[in-house]
Amino acid sequence: ARYWTGRALAWITANPRAYLALLGMKLQTLWNGFEIPDNYHYVFMRRHFLPALWPLVTFSFVAPLALVGAVMPFWRRRDVTALYIACFGYLATVLLFYVRGRYRMQAVPLLILFAGLGIDHLARALLARRWAAVAALSAGLVAAVWFTNREYCEPPHHGLNATCLGGDTWFDSEWLKLAEWYRNAGQLETAIGYAKRAQECSRPRSVGWNLAWLGELHTMRVDELMRAGRRAEAAPHIAGAEEAYRTAVRAGYRPGVMQSHLGTLYSIAGRPAEAITALEAAAAARALDAAGMRRLAVAYVSVGRCEDARQTLERLDRARGLSELTTDSRAVLAPCEGRS
Q: pLDDT tens digit string along 138-195?
């Protein structure tokens, strides 16, 4: 903790203007109506799985009223000073460290009290026909609504995509969590369905990551069906995985790794020539692991390129610190025996 505190303070001292700009950005996210997800994506859950929450108020409703209610000379009201300190002191700690919906939530009960106070201010002014006060409070409320409910966006930075707080931002990550759950439960068709939902999001966290997930799930289903001898049923999944991986390559997402995954797909599907092309591209990009090298050797043997297979296996075994081919490598080369 001391190390990171020191790093942070050193950066703040050296970059005071950048730090103030950063605080300004964080202040906008702190008061934005969008709930930035951490453990759970509240907006996603509310929209797709918990419709009973729709009639309930959200931060978007509470925050503008709370800002209006909080604008008062609290130092003249000792009975509410502690409320200000508790609420805004806590929010200050969130601002300094890490803005997330679940950290901001602790302040909401106190903000609801300020929201009630804002409603009370406006109601009293209306009943007393103090039109100047009504106009001032209404203008403040409109400004607060705009500030808290506008779609705040940040440009790309530090390798991250541009992000806007609103709409279906980061919904794709939630769909992939469901896909992962069903994958682990052995229900690959359902998992693929949820992975496809992730592709439909208009604001994905990572297009390439989503495509890689979809391709992997299709590949797992291909392996499952091919082992069961259901080649015809595997065909659409082969096409789906192929399209996902190739689209990821075109998008520039880890092209070497995607080529390796393509090679795995073609190996499972019994298409050795295409597996060789993909795996060689992965090797050229230095993205081929030991399993991939073995698959490449097997593909070479399948098309009769025995010397290429031998050289690949020798490189693999040398990388393991072995001077001779292992029993497993010799088994791969066994079909080559007797070939010229």
A: 999 999 999 999 999 988 877 677 889 999 999 999 999 999 999 999 999 999 999 9
The mean pLDDT value for 199-218 works out to: 94
pTM: 0.85
User: Helices marked H in the chain — which ranges?
Assistant: 2-14, 16-30, 42-48, 59-70, 78-96, 101-104, 108-127, 131-149, 171-184, 188-199, 207-227, 231-250, 255-269, 272-284, 290-302, 306-319, 327-333
Burial class (CB in 10 A: 0-12, 13-18, 19+), 267: buried
What does the pLDDT look like over 97-123, one tens digit per residue?
889 999 999 999 999 999 998 999 899
pLDDT of residue 252: 92
What gap in Å lies between CA 119 and CA 112, rounded to an integer? Answer: 11
User: Angle at Cα 81 formed by Cα 80 and Cα 85, nearest 5°?
Assistant: 120
Q: What's the rounded Cα separation, in Å, for the pair 269 and 264?
A: 9
b/e burial code for range 103-131 (CB count within 10 A of at least 16 → b): bbeebbebbbebbebbeebbeebeeeeee
Coil, strand or helix at 163: strand
Which 8-state DSSP code applies to residue 161? P
- The residue assigned the tokens 């453990």 is 39
Neighbours of 11 (CB within 10 A): 13
**337: alpha, beta or left? (left if phi > 0; alpha if psi -120 to 50):** beta
AA identity, residue 289: D
Nearest to 152 by CA among 45, 17, 35: 35
| DSSP run (H or E) holding 336 | none
What is residue 274's three-state secondary structure?
helix
